[in-house]
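Run log // design_07
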């Protein structure tokens, strides 16, 4: 009966029985997450009535029977995860109409037949399609579907005699080679350890590149970057240097080579590997995808999706590119950041705190869509909770309470989001203005702001582009109010990212007066209700 409900997340509970078909009446749903429960029977066809749905996650249940064709009506769907169920039969032909679909995962079911001829399935990793009864098509790791049945039968018969003769011979030869090879490798390792016992730990090669041959990918990356030549460097962060690598398949990835000082701190490689797998399974359109991790005696690095335009900071500090980033694009950048952080805080299991939201860790693609990066680096490299201050973030973006609590919470991410939002609107880091506005936030409820705060909003905004007009002006005012709420000195008074993301998904409120006359004082006088 909640007809205006937009987000329903019941993941990781102990819910059982059938998924209620009445969910189809929640016509405004944008996200539906019922994963990690014990739902049985079939997926209700009524879910196909949720025409605004963008994210559907039914993974890790006991759902059976065929996928209803009505799901092909979800024209706005961007993420679909039905993995780890008992779904059978063919993938509905109507899925060819899911043109907005970006991420799909149908792994660990009993599905058969061809995959839909759309980009999301063609670009899906083998991990997202594996462990089914027999799906085929143009995707990583799948067999093509176009071989006629008659041809397969003729080929089988013609090769039968050859197989019966050659197979036993090859099997015997292979067994001999394996035994000889194993003895040779063991002997070489024994000699190496005997010569240098201190190298036992360094002799370990850890390859966790999901859906790929880790060792081959390691060699490809070393070749693509000419062993991390500075000519391929595209950025540097606190944990390592980032390189651009063009793989033999023409696929471009970003490789973060970790500083040796960071990898030396990894006391538990198995826990680190598990953490990589958790973070690699995070899929959101506004989060840079982590493909995996390679640890080698010589190099250790993380492999990420490559985002074309680079960091938000680089664009804002370049006059020509900043002018190209108009107000509509800037509003969309803020929406994207909010969506990503809301997902990490509220939809990820377990919840993930970013710890270092800065304009350097927000990347923009060719369409100026925001992608939050480095969302797990600090989490992976500093797993010891007693070492809070080691990943307190970047100076100028960290929440003030870290100075005395030394404990990172999701409200620290909210504060950093507020700083970056101000930076997007102002075209530069807000600097000392943050402390001024934060003090205003605490005093505005009890007294009138001082005269010095009569500064007009238009004079604070980025002067390199013309003033926003109509809807963009309403969006700028509303987002600036939200940013101020995020900068509140008291963490409990800041809104959650879930609330902020929902607030940004609604229509912009009308302006209280003409845009050119709105002052910083007005941003406090007409506060937006986003505090939970």
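design_07 sequence
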């Amino acid at each position: 009966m909640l007809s205006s409900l937009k987000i329903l997340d019941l993941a990781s509970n102990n819910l059982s029985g059938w998924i209620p078909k009445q969910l189809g009446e929640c016509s405004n749903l944008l996200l539906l997450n019922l994963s990690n429960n014990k739902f049985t029977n079939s997926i209700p066809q009524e879910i196909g009535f949720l025409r605004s749905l963008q994210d559907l996650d039914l993974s890790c249940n006991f759902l059976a029977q065929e996928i209803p064709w009505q799901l092909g009506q979800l024209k706005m769907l961007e993420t679909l995860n039905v993995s780890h169920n008992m779904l059978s039969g063919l993938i509905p032909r109507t899925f060819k109409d899911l043109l907005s679909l970006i991420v799909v995962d149908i792994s660990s079911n009993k599905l058969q037949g061809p995959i839909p001829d759309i980009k999301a399935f063609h670009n899906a990793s083998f991990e997202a399609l594996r462990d089914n009864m027999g799906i085929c098509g143009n995707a990583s790791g799948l067999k093509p579907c176009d071989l006629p049945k008659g041809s397969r039968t003729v080929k089988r018969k013609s090769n039968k005699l050859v197989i019966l003769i050659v197979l036993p011979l090859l099997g015997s030869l292979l067994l001999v080679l394996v035994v000889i090879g194993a003895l040779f490798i063991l002997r070489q390792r024994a000699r190496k350890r005997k010569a240098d016992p201190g190298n036992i730990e360094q002799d370990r090669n850890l390859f966790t590149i999901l859906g790929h041959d880790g060792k081959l990918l390691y060699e490809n990356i070393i070749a693509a970057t000419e062993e991390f030549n500075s000519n391929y460097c595209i950025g540097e962060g606190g944990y390592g240097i980032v390189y651009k690598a063009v793989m033999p398949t023409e696929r471009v990835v970003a490789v973060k080579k970790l500083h040796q000082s960071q990898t030396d701190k990894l006391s538990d490689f198995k826990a680190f590997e598990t953490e990589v797998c958790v973070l690699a399974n995070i899929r959101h359109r506004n989060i840079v995808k982590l493909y995996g991790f390679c640890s080698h005696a010589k190099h250790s690095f993380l492999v990420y999706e490559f985002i074309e335009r680079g960091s938000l900071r680089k664009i804002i500090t370049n006059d020509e590119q900043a002018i190209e980033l108009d107000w509509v694009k800037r509003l969309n950048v803020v929406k994207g950041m909010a969506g990503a952080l809301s997902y990490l805080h509220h939809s990820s299991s377990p919840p993930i705190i970013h710890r270092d939201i800065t304009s350097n860790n927000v990347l923009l693609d060719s369409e100026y869509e925001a992608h939050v990066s480095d969302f797990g680096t600090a989490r992976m490299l500093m797993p010891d909770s007693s070492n809070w201050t080691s990943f307190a973030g970047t100076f100028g973006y960290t929440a003030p309470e870290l100075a005395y609590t030394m404990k990172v919470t999701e409200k620290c991410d909210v504060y950093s989001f507020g700083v970056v939002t101000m930076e997007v609107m102002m075209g530069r880091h807000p600097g000392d203005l943050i402390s001024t506005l934060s003090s205003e936030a605490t005093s505005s409820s009890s007294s009138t702001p001082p005269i010095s705060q009569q500064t007009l909003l238009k004079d604070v905004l980025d002067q390199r582009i013309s003033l926003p007009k109509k809807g963009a002006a309403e969006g700028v005012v509303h987002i600036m109010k939200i940013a101020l709420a995020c900068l509140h000195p008291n963490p409990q008074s800041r809104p959650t990212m879930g609330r902020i993301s929902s607030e940004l998904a609604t229509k912009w409120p009308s302006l209280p007066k003409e845009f050119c006359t709105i002052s910083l004082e007005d941003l406090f006088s007409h506060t937006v209700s986003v505090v939970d």
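The two ends are 23 Å apart (CA to CA).
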